[in-house]
Amino acid sequence: MDVGRLPGVIVKPFEQVVAEYGPMVLRVCRAVVGPTDAEDAWSETFLAALKAYPDLPADANLEAWLVTIAHRKAVDITRVRGRSPIPVDEVPERQSPARAVDGDLWDSVARLPDKQRAAVAYHYLAGLPYREIALITGGTTDAARRAASDGIRALRATTNREEARS
């Protein structure tokens, strides 16, 4: 019997977890670290999840667990951004297809304060309740709700200003 597993409980194969939750985790990573670093955060999330998956209790909330890991990996990537760049012969193309389609939205999300960006991503992209967002980000349920509300209000104001200019 695996540690943390109940006898006779059938657990999803990890490949199925990746297929089911992968797109949601990628959306969260894009919102938190931006489209350029999102794939790295996604990969790091699922590598860490793969290592811990055998010990995960059968009744665990997979979505919240994966978002928690993604949040930690995103924080790690944000910290690493401060390091010195590595010289290369050719500069790689940085614009991803997702950024080309809705770059203005990603730019607006990236300009949100950290707490608002995280709350918007976790609630509206990952579908987590505010209580779980508070556990991930280290605040209260009311603070998570307020951060998401303020973030959405700021995004709407940005969108309305851009539409008025068009």
Care to describe what's here?
The protein has 166 residues and is an all-alpha fold. It has a single domain, classed as Butyryl-CoA Dehydrogenase, subunit A, domain 3. 70% of the residues lie in helices and 0% in strands. The protein contains 7 helices and no strands. It has helices spanning 14-33, 35-52, 62-80, 97-110, 114-125, 130-137, 141-165. Residues 105-153 form the RNA polymerase sigma factor 70 region 4 type domain.
Jot down its keywords.
166 residues; mainly alpha; Butyryl-CoA Dehydrogenase, subunit A, domain 3; 7 helices; 70% helix; 0% strand; globular; disordered N terminus
Topology:
Blueprint: H1 14-33, H2 35-52, H3 62-80, H4 97-110, H5 114-125, H6 130-137, H7 141-165
Helix pairs in contact: 1-2, 1-3, 1-5, 2-3, 5-7, 6-7
Keywords: DNA-binding, Sigma factor, Transcription, Transcription regulation
Protein name: RNA polymerase sigma factor (Sigma-70 family)
Family: Belongs to the sigma-70 factor family. ECF subfamily.
Number of strands: 0
SS-based structural class? mainly alpha
CATH class: Mainly Alpha
The helix content is 55-70%
- Report the CATH topology name: Butyryl-CoA Dehydrogenase, subunit A, domain 3
User: How large is the radius of gyration?
Assistant: 18 Å
